[in-house]
Amino acid sequence: MSQAAIRRFRCDNWDDTMSDVELCYKPAVEVLELFREKQLSPVELLDALIARAERVEPIVNAFASTYYDSAMAAARAAEARYQAGGDPSRPLDGLPVAAKSDGESAVEGTISSDGCSWLTDNVDDHTNPSMERLLTAGAVVFARTAMPEMGWTWTCHTKVHGVTRNPWNPKYSPGGSSAGSAASVVSGTSTVAMGTDALGSLRVPSAMCGAVTFKAPYGRNPLHPEVCFDFFNHIGPITRTVGDAALVQNTISGQHPLDHTTVPQQMVIPAELPDIRGMRIAYCVDLGYFPVTDEVRRETLAALDALRAAGARVEEVEMPWAEQIIRLGSRYTDLVYMDMFDAAIRDHPDEINDYTRFYFECAESVDPREIGETLELAGVIWAKHFGPLLQRYDALITPTLAFHEVLAENQPWEESITVRGKSYNDHDGVMTALFSIFSRCPVLALPSGFTDSGLPTGIQVAGRPFDDITVFRIGAALERHRPWLDVPERRPSIDVRIS
């Protein structure tokens, strides 16, 4: 739908000095307050986001499918409710949300393509539990976001949706697999977005694009019954602020009858979080073996200095035990998903991307006995190393990625990244798997700074099992001391490239 075709609405107290771009970057918490105060209409916000998408999508390509007409109808209905005094049962009434185009984020009447050309007509006949909670709270899904085929690369290029690019520099990748969700949020084409995560599919694109995301403890956020028993699987928000991540997380969490694995306790993240004075935080820059660049190390240490300034006691720890369990964990997931790759190759040999065949070959090389070995080793590591570490410290911080200059169309077998004279593929820099294996640990991923070339860097804050509030406290403290995306100077210059 063109901008001209959308009815624009001005509330009585509308601030005409606010530009549409500024409106597109308003945090969800502030947007909802403006709705309630009748200073902004959901129609006006959605109108601005659509106009923004029409401007930047030719470069970023974050959306796999859009639902502007139905979303605008929902926005008008929300506008009427606010004008009538609001509906307390709809705390997110009229909030535009973009959702990843995988089956785990299904929304009835929209398309879950999983990045596959043979699923472009796969219209969902149901809404998955976490997404249903957002819709019940009044959120409006106006787009499904791009992802790599079956969500299994750390870049995002497919035969069906083309190449999704990093908003900061389109030469580079926005990460994977929740790539479109992160790219959209940072581009200002969605207020918040949803993604999923097995080995890092929320955290990697958030780090590549400079956004906030939360991998909740496994069992906190309900999943579809077909995937809920896989303890690597998670669904969660990608946002621009810590407060927005908490807002979405509070909405979707809690026990659900369709997900046997969800825990009864709903952890509510308070709007006002205590400071971190006196908190003990451990950090490890390379987890014992990752090829961390000097720039990532520098920005990680700068973020840690900010936490020290906020009153935390921050100490370096060594983790020589991490490498073996991380490598085994990746092999475990390869084997779990092998049948999915096999079916794609068998049923759609001419439609699949080359990397799907590559991942099938990787999975075929896994000895099934490695699953038992992984689970046994995880128990030993927790009992002897990781568990005791988290008893001594309130949280552990590491970089999210060892390096960030991954080309947008990089293939997983290409060793195109050089660190201190040695070549690596994109998988070699992903530092998220440890916290997927120990999946009851909450992880808040946050921007930490920038590389010399202007790409964002990120850290991940991992807490004790089910201690969500602590990682949010740390995230809020970092955001206060080193803010991101809050002013034009700290946002990508997409408009410059367009003009």
From TrEMBL:
InterPro entries found in the cross-reference section: Amidase, Amidase_dom, AS_sf
EC supergroup of this enzyme: hydrolase
Segments passing through the bilayer: none
Family: Belongs to the amidase family.
Catalytic activity: a monocarboxylic acid amide + H2O = a monocarboxylate + NH4(+)
UniProt-recorded Gene Ontology molecular function terms: amidase activity
EC number assigned by the record: 3.5.1.4
Organism: Nocardia panacis
Lineage of source species: Bacteria, Bacillati, Actinomycetota, Actinomycetes, Mycobacteriales
Protein name listed in UniProt: amidase
Domain (Amidase) ranges: 44-471
